[in-house]
Design brief:
Shape: elongated
Structural class: mainly alpha
Number of strands: 0
Helix content: 55-70%
Strand content: under 5%
Largest sheet: none
Length: about 180
């Protein structure tokens, strides 16, 4: 097997694995498939972690994951697909960050891995075993990479920043006890 063939096969496997996982997570949010909670349940969760309005947040995250993941798996519009998926995973990582890095403790490890892999695929390109290649890279031009990441970064910064402000404001209303009370009998 030639070096280029190995590279294309490796990119195909990365695209299928990463895109498939992302699409499945998005389908949980959008349709309630694979044990997910659909728009209603995911919307309630999104509200509980500070992404308001919840249904709109669930829809946006679900579309970015399902659409981005499906397009990555197909190798179609790879810059936009990878950037959208990476943006969705940045939003997920923000929720899990207080729990540390490792997934076993509820950390952001899994979201970061999916997001970085999607971003890497957007930058590297889909390889020859892709719809982008088959279509002459009509939606996979070099200028699309920085454009897709700029738009996604701006949108992600606005959404994650608004969430952080909401969480800070909610926390300001809470007052911690100055002293621990011990009751004696």
């Amino acid at each position: 097997m030639r070096r280029n063939d190995r590279r294309d096969l490796g990119l195909l496997l990365l695209r299928l694995g990463t895109g498939g996982a992302l699409a499945a997570h998005g389908a949980q949010k959008l349709f309630g498939w694979f044990g997910g909670h659909g728009i209603e349940g995911t919307g309630q969760f999104m509200e509980s972690v500070g992404y308001v309005p919840g249904k709109a947040s669930a829809t946006a995250a679900g579309l970015a994951e399902t659409g981005g993941g499906t397009l990555l798996a197909l190798g179609l519009a790879t810059p936009a697909a990878g950037a959208a998926a990476a943006g969705a995973m940045a939003g997920a990582a923000a929720v899990h960050a207080p729990n540390g890095f490792f997934n076993q403790g509820g950390g952001y490890e899994y979201a970061a891995t999916l997001g970085l892999t999607a971003a890497g695929l957007a930058i590297t390109g889909p390889g020859r075993l892709s719809l982008d290649h088959l279509l002459g890279h009509a939606v996979n031009r070099g200028w699309m990479i920085p454009a897709a990441f700029a738009v996604t970064a701006a949108g992600t910064a606005v959404v994650v920043g608004a969430r952080a402000r909401r969480l800070r404001k909610a926390k300001e209303g809470e007052q911690e006890a100055l002293f621990e009370e011990e009751y004696m009998e």
